[in-house]
Amino acid sequence: MNRLAQESSPYLRQHADNPVDWYPWGDEAQARAHELDRPIFLSIGYSACHWCHVMAHESFEDPAIAAHMNDRFVNVKVDREERPDVDAVYMQAVQALTGSGGWPMSVWLTPDGRPFYAGTYFPPVERHGMPSFTRVIDAVSDAWSTRRDELLDAADQISGAIARSIVPESTGEPDASVLTNAVESLRASFDPRFGGFGRAPKFPPAMALAFLCGRAAVDPTFASLEMITTTLDAMAAGGMYDQLGGGFARYSTDTYWLVPHFEKMLYDNALLLRAYTQGWLITREARYARVVDETIGYLLRDLRRPGGGFASAEDADSEGEEGRFYVWSRAELEEVCGDDAAEAIRYWGVTDGGNFEGRNILHVVDPHEEPPDAVQRARAALLAHREQRVRPGLDDKVLLAWNALAVRALAEAGAAFDRPEWIDAARETTRFLLTSLRRADGRLLRSWQETAPELEGQGRARHLAYADDYAALLAALITLAEIDDPAGLTDAIAVADALVDLFHDDAGGFFTTGSDAPALIVRPKDYEDNATPSENSLAAHALLRLAALTGEPRYEALAAEVVDALAPLASQHAVAFGELLQAIERRVSAPLEIAIVGAPDDPATTALRRAVTGRLLPTAVVLVAAPGADDARISPLLADRPLVDGRPAAYVCERFACRAPVTEPDALRAELDRVMGVTS
After folding, report:
1. What is this structure's pTM?
2. Which of 89, 109, 298, 538 is in the most buried spot, having the most CB atoms within 10 Å?
């Protein structure tokens, strides 16, 4: 066993018995590189990464290649999910040196951490035009010995390029034209046949879809509704969606969402839950409700950890083969499904030859067809049979930001579909995060991992939390305060203030790492919404919501720094700024504030609440409080809001100036239509 055996990351521990003399990221590795006068070889990956496993099997488990590495470098392994700061810095180096990026990431550094050579996957022997890993090792080692000055000069140039910000200064507050232009930007890359934006490989555009749903919510004749429905339908019908167990794989290798890389990530499923919930709110299509129900079922069944947190991911591989757990032969289907087999074969497009290496990835032939009873029975039988197979590996670490995304999605879905058990799950996960990932001094931590299976629910948290952890948790806490209990705003305000204190850049925006974190060669700052929303988009969106609830202008000003600077980029490159566009929509619109006052168990209070949560209101904030509750100290929205003739009442307000209260759900819906400017 090498040093990785004691790490909390399952990905790092997967490499604990490699013959490579791995170090985790930290001072010890740098000190050893200085002592030996050797470069650092930095390998970054994650547990669900198929090609990370391939390179590990081919090279890092090979004693001869490992000896080659150990003789020439100090070797460092990093889990990109635990250390997104390290990943962000050196991904920029890979992109600067190669023009692209990905994982596994392979970077060679000076002993003080400056990159001078980089790539991604290297095969053990030369093939497909790629040099062998041993050839690269020899070339880097020789250059370090004979041409070090050139490498050091390259390291200086690359480090300088990474340090320069590409974000423009603010040109002033944006207007609604930014949103119109963003819709046109999405339309320009939209695939009208199979949905999504751009060509294969296709990644689920959850945040862009959420933005489009917000646009459609205020205009039932929204001309781009087909971008939403075509994409939601195609993704849910394809093999990227687990037709038996629910939940989505990371991405599709083809243009029609059939063949995925089979890893399932918590963050994808959380973000897509929001997209399908919002899709249902604007269309009321039953198939979107089914996807929400099945995907939440997957999260609660397969990713839920003791105590309430969610595991990070499931691997693509099982029994050494990618996708083996998920694919079927026709003969298997006939054997398991019995009399229902013919209907299941038709519905899922199963053939003798298969569609993936001789077997079948299940997919729905007609995306608009609801599964008939025979298919529902077949699904249950196949799922039970599949549970007897060897499951893909589980990355069981609990990451704060990803869990916070899941909390928000669960709470919103629970409110939209009137499923209190989903809100209970969100509430339980939040308690877990605030207990297990928060130190006694209040500092949040990034990653929690169970110490031993026999000690159920007991674990350890590691690594200082990043800005996206704080911002995602802030968004989740605000959502729970709106849906569940206004008192939760107290925690939200504390998290927001810590976000500002630890991460705010006086020049505008938020750094990835806190002011108390160990220094890297640069202090990274992420703006684009890629696989997950960036810390700046999350922070801007959440702070605008918090400002609308608390009346605190400082929060709005901090959000405006981000929104105003990035709005021109977002309007032209909408796919890369899906979360930010939702913040921009709040920035250019007067906040819609809704206060409902009534006893929580009063059916009239519930009916008023349902009039709000049963529709999509993209720029609204809402609080529900019992009469006489001491919540006005938290939010002025709840100040002086009495019952009306002893009945629960709803107040619709803009900047805390409220219209006459209403007591009937239909009257509340009409009032919301008027304020939202909803057209028919």
Report:
1. 0.94
2. 538
